Amino acid sequence: MAVSQFDSEQYTSEAFVESVGAILFRLSRREVCVLHLLNRDEYVLAKGRRNCGESRKDTAVRELMEESGFSCRLLHLDMSTRAPSAVETEQLGDEAHFYTGICEPFNLQLRRLKEGDVKLIWWYIAAVDEDQSFNEGHTGGAEVCRGILQLH
Q1: CB 24 within 8 A of CB 68
Q2: CA atoms within 13 A on the CB side of 7
Q3: Dmax of the chain from CA atoms?
Q4: Which residues does the UniProt record annotate as the domain Nudix hydrolase (predicted)?
Q5: Model pTM?
Q6: 127 to each of 31, 62, 103, 107, 143, how far by Cα in Å?
Q7: Most CB within 10 Å of its CB: which of 9, 33, 102, 144?
Q8: Does residue 15 surpass a pLDDT of 80?
Q9: What is the DSSP letter of 15?
Q10: Domain for residue 88, yes or no?
Q11: Secondary structure E strands in the chain
């Protein structure tokens, strides 16, 4: 039996959790939304766990609404990724390729939890739907102060 040349780790379903979040911008005012967790005095970006059967994109939009109170949309970006294009016209090597106008996570964060458990956090870029009203949302039980930081 051949042995892989790559280091690898495997986690059964009870040992990992998958979360999705986004950096949320209000484009018209050049602002970014951050959450202030009052009970920990910590500033964070909105994110949360993916439900069974839910797509990552749907999770991101739902969690942003629940945690920030803002209706939003995920932005299509020009970026490099190792994922193949939606329509493969040729066999590409396992290397990054540049695409325009794709809606994909720009970052994957691996957070090691207690011994043997991990959290995968997929990050997107999103924009506030400015024609929609603000919704208090639920905060998963956390005391949250929503804030907007002005970008320069």
Answers
A1: yes
A2: 0
A3: 59
A4: 15-152
A5: 0.84
A6: 10, 13, 12, 17, 24
A7: 33
A8: yes
A9: G
A10: no
A11: 16-26, 31-37, 42-44, 47-49, 72-74, 77-81, 97-102, 107-112, 118-128, 144-150
125: β partners: 23
Characterize the bridge pairing of strands 97-102 and 118-128. unpaired
CA distance 26 to 130: 8
Q: Are 83 and 111 in contact (CB under 8 A)?
A: no
- Report residue 6 as tokens: 């790559």
CATH number of the domain enclosing 70: 3.90.79.10
Say how many domains are in the chain.
1
Q: Are 35 and 140 in contact (CB under 8 A)?
A: no
Say how far apart CA 96 and CA 99 lie, in whole Å. 10
Cβ atoms of residues 88 and 38 within 8 Å: no
CB 51, CB 57: distance < 8 Å: no
The residue whose two tokens read 């905060």 is 139
Q: Go through the chain and tell me how many residues it has.
A: 152
Contact 105, 56 (CB under 8 A): yes
The answer to whether residue 2 sits within a structural domain is no
Tell whether 5 is covered by a domain. no
pLDDT, one tens digit per residue, over 19-72 is: 999 999 988 888 899 988 888 888 899 999 999 999 999 999 999 999 988 899
